[in-house]
Write a structure and sequence with these properties.
Length: 210
């Protein structure tokens, strides 16, 4: 079960734009200049895909070869820099676009891993790495604890999305609908976790105030 090249490219560019917006919003909130905003938008948009490609031995990473990834990242950065107030009027823009990018990159990472011959466990793990890589790069660059290490469901949502892709492949289901279903599941879990405060347990967390 493999996705068509055109479909993969479309999903990757949409995910790239979403993650780039999340990176640019964080940069603007931290009062970075225009260059800083563009750097953070590109890092957030491409770090996960770069990790995936390097781990699969697909070098140089596609985001450094295909000009469209840079162009989409810069467009998102410029749009956010010059229209930041409009972007901020959206409800929780960083979390919204981050959730979209997380879902798309998680399923794409798992799909590419399967196409490269990895087994189910490796494919799920690579899907998670692809999904969370951009968010980690974005947060580290502004000295924040990455979302993946916090209690809100983040990596778990990526794990669920990648798991759908791997399960669909094992069952011989059509690739495109399975990928969409995995991305929607990941996005939904992440968004519900944000809205409803779903969290993983933390050591020593007894519910009492510190």
């Amino acid at each position: 079960m493999q996705l068509t090249t055109a479909f993969v490219a479309l999903l990757e560019l949409v995910g790239t734009f979403a993650f780039a917006i999340s990176g640019a919003v964080v940069a603007v909130r931290h009062r970075l200049d225009l260059f800083g905003v563009l750097v953070l938008s590109f890092a957030a948009a491409t770090a996960g895909g770069m990790m995936r490609d390097l781990l699969l031995g697909a070098t140089p990473p596609v985001s450094l070869v295909d000009w469209r990834y840079l162009a989409v990242s810069l467009l998102a950065g410029l749009l956010t820099f010059f229209r930041h107030s409009a972007v901020e009027r959206m409800h929780n823009p960083v979390q919204l676009f981050d959730a979209i990018g997380l879902g798309l990159f998680a399923v794409l990472g798992a799909g590419k891993a399967l196409a490269a011959g990895l087994g189910p466990v490796g494919a799920v793990m690579l899907g998670v790495v692809t999904g969370v890589g951009g968010g980690i790069a974005r947060d580290v660059l502004v000295a924040q604890i990455p979302h993946v290490l916090r209690r809100e469901l983040y990596a778990v949502a990526a794990l669920a999305g990648a798991g759908v892709v791997v399960s669909g492949d094992a069952l011989g289901l059509p690739a495109a609908p399975v990928a969409v279903a995995g991305a929607v599941l990941c996005f939904t879990l992440r968004w519900l976790a944000i809205r409803r405060g779903w969290r993983l347990p933390v050591a020593g967390d007894s519910g009492a105030p510190d």
